[in-house]
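Moderator note: this is an archived Q&A kept for reference. The question asked for a predicted structure of one protein chain; the sequence and the answer are reproduced below.
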Amino acid sequence: MPKWKKGRNRECGCMGGEQNGREWSAEQVIKSLNEKELELYLYSLHKLAENNLESNRQMMTELYNLRGFNYKAAEEMLQNPELKFAMIILDFANFKSINEFCGRSAGDDLLKCVADALRVQKKKRAHVVLSHVRADVFAILTPYEKKSDLVDMVKEIDEQIASFQIAYKVLPAFGICVAESYTTPVSLMKDCATMALNTIKGKFYAKYAFFDDKMRDQMMLNKMIENDIIGALEENQLAVFVQPKVDMRNGRIIGGEALVRWLHPERGTVSPAQFLPVLEQNGLIIDVDVYVWTKVFEMIGRRLEEGKHVVPVSINISRSHVFDRDFRKRLVGLAAQYHVPPEYVFLELTESGFSEQEDVMYENMKFLKEYGFTLSMDDFGTGYSTMTMLKNQPVDEIKIDRGFILDIRNSRSQTIMRHTIQMLHELDVSIIVEGVEEKEQQDFLLDCGCRRAQGFLYYQPMPAAEFECLLDQKENKISF
């Protein structure tokens, strides 16, 4: 047998290995085998899938679990290299609600119905492998000739599920990934099909989606972000930018918002819209937040020590910090470490930050407010429960979302904006409007009694060093 060490491919979790210190993909390993070795490899896959069969099947549905499925699916593909294969992942958008409103037994019966629908397809064609992956997620490996064959299969399964009698609207969704070759790793196909599924899950108008080149590019970008972000933090590839906040009456800077930009050595500037959502999903956003916080506290502390003009700078608190018990200690610790009075740092939170473990976040915000930090609600007006959040949150400042002023010429928009500002004034909450780009917007806001804004009419986000230069100009040296 070839002298490689069996292991896990770091990118897709498939069987891979190393030879002479170089990592091998599953495809390279398989292609390196001669006929006898490949036969032995296939036999080992077969035995792994078939041995202890019951332990490799889900008890409720009698379908393969994920481990058995991975082995059996790989075996089918390798034994039939002349066939084209595809992976279909089925998931429900609302299964938790089904269990809650209809009862667990009804939910279990629905899962059995799905399993029966999949078995119908298996009887129609050879080389199909089925799996009850977990909870309400199922997987199908199937040969096909045309993509329309896969669409027909999905429609037939959906129709059989729709015939199940249950007092709740069932919303199954299907993600489909076509294998590039018979050596395509099963786990990679599953990830790709799942990514396709997530683009339409919960949408009434779409039942299925194929994994395509756009999704592949996004997946590669996500992998790059996950792989490179730690190095980026260590090598200072992340740059802190600041967008000034101004007094619209005179244009003077009265604050700033700290933002982050990734200056990747190979890809150039990576947009926050690309990497922040990925980091929020895997929890690494906490490390990025702390990195930005540290830079802001260091900047303000240094300027105070040098006797330079200082204005409050706001930092973002991602909702991931709800689950981080130490995040408020970090903020207090940074204030002490850099000798920064907390009133110079505003904490910006979005409504979504309170959507999970609400009591914990309220407790943390109350603690930080009592310590002296200023609390700011970002993107005001974009959430479904904004008024409730405004009533309950201990906030000092409201940042009105730019969507309120995009069509400020519209009389209805003007009415909403005018009364919103009046309401916030009566609640004795400071107001700042985001996204001011036109003088007409500025004039309307001033007429409504709002004087603070942030937007391209005044400044775009700039490197922190440039922001400091602006503060050093004499005309900006005013008290906050």
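Archived answer notes: The chain has a mean pLDDT of 84.
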